[in-house]
Amino acid sequence: MWRKEVQASLMRGGTSRGVFLLDEKLPAGNRDELFVKLMGSPDPLQVDGLGGGFSSTSKVMLVRKGTKSGADVDYLFGQVYVDKAKVDYSGNCGNLTSAVGPFAVDEGLVKPPRSDTLMILTLSCSISTQKTT
Hints:
A hairpin with a 7-residue loop joins strand 3 (about 60-65) and strand 4. The protein has two helices and seven strands. The protein has helices at about 30-40, 95-105; strands at about 10-15, 15-20, 60-65, 75-80, 85-90, 120-125, 130. The chain is an alpha/beta fold.
């Protein structure tokens, strides 16, 4: 039996849902294997994981305090295949990108706002694109 303890948050952004993880809290080892197991792939229903059997619910966001280009937060998006034990890091998900800021605040990577508005500069490490959320 494959077993690892991982701290994760299941978050929704737009029409997508994904598992958000802090980079610094991941156990050593093969991240792809961990992400595939977290989602329950390869299985069309992903019944043994957090995925929902659709590409829009089989995603991971790996988040850390910003280290590049003055960004507040860096993130790496991974699309976990439903029917294969594979993770694709070549793209991005705009829906889940909108949840990176709230996750960063919840996890203490960014200080909570003192007003109704908080601007967070994020950097996608998958495609090297900066976004403001």
